[in-house]
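Attaching the record inline, Q. Sequence:
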Amino acid sequence: MSGQARTSIAIIGGGATGSLLALHLLRSTREDLRVTLVERRPDPGKGLAYSTSTDLHLLNVAAGRMGAFTDQPDHFWNWIVNNGLDGGQSSTDFLPRHLYGRYLAELVGEAAGDGTAKARLRVVQDNCIGVTPTLSGVSVQLESGVSLPSHVAVLAVGHDPEPGPQFGFAARPCIADELEAEPDDDVLILGTGLSMIDAWLTLASRGHRGRIVVLSRRGLLPHPHSAERRPLQLDLADIPLGTEFSYFVRWFTRLISEAEATGRNWRDVIDGVRPFNQRIWMDWPVSARRRFLQHYKAWWDIHRHRIPQDIRNRAEKALGDGSLELIAGRVVELEEQEGRKRLRFRRRGARQTEEDAFDRVFDCTGIIRDITQSSSPVIRNLVERGLARPDPLRLGLDVTAECALISADGRASDRIFAAGPPTRGAFFEVDAIQEIRQQCAALARRLAEPATAAPPGAQARPAP
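Structure, as predicted:
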């Protein structure tokens, strides 16, 4: 395909990532460019995060910074105002997530037009089960038996909706307002991050009467946003790239201390470093990345992925009145017995184990899991056939800096790419809209131009 125009692009997954990529591709002035968006749900644009219907589930970023396009961060807020949905709120407020899903769905719908041949975007409701390279591009195999020929395919399948295999019968609350739990059920939620907050809010809003216990290794809840956002102004030259991991940690903690000494706080530092997070991750060797995941990620998550102050206040009130119980500890055993889920766990710092029993268990342990155990049929298919491989830490698929898939023998593809969460192993922070839209904009520019990538068989880098 080198040097040829790529006029047809198939995007597998029509959640936020796939929709943003499609929208960025359609900004191209090329009239011959055609995009096919394959999504198994009937409403592309929403995905897992934005399919919620409750006002309780809020965006974790102010509305004024959630625009779909990198050069128009206020695009979403302008849409809110133009549709009379602001309700007296401002662009600095955290709006319900379902509004963002509605926003993306509307943009995709407008791009698809009336569904005629003139439309540059076609939406196909189906489930992709495989991608096969062909002489002229790729063939995208769908569950219905249909095969879609295309020049390029992009995997944008998002987060895995299924619970981790280590918890077997646990349910993963993908769309938290659809949690299946009776009012008097004793509920165990594994994990204390943003997904747990969603699940707990849903249960609490229903007037749940049973116990709600949340358990994680460190028992840490996300910190709240501050009333004012003041990111520290940093340049790439300020970041100690190429240094030992321990030196980087010392530099970072010192930067926070220096900021606090001048009346700022840790939020300013984290927000200031954010534009360089992917570069920092990519600069670290695998050993440093593994060390970060083992010892620092939990602390990073609660500071980096924050929640609105009023949600944090509600959580603290629930902990105080006992309607929510928080345990820092580790699961020793979790099994189903006589219709209930029997938990054996060890509290942090304790030697002895304790036991408890629950009616429902929800897995909110987050995104860090072995990509080869994904429930996505297309990911499993590509890995099993050697067309893709996991990254060295098995967090996602191994890709080049340009998002091209790397095969089992270390060769970069010029026709199969990935975007969003499947690339987290390479870039780590590619889950929030701001990072996803930036990645999608860069990939769209690359794909909308004549192919200049190395031909199939070009070496990418050694296998992990």
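Residues 245-261 form the longest helix (17 residues). Confidence is low (pLDDT under 50) at residues 452-458.

More tomorrow.
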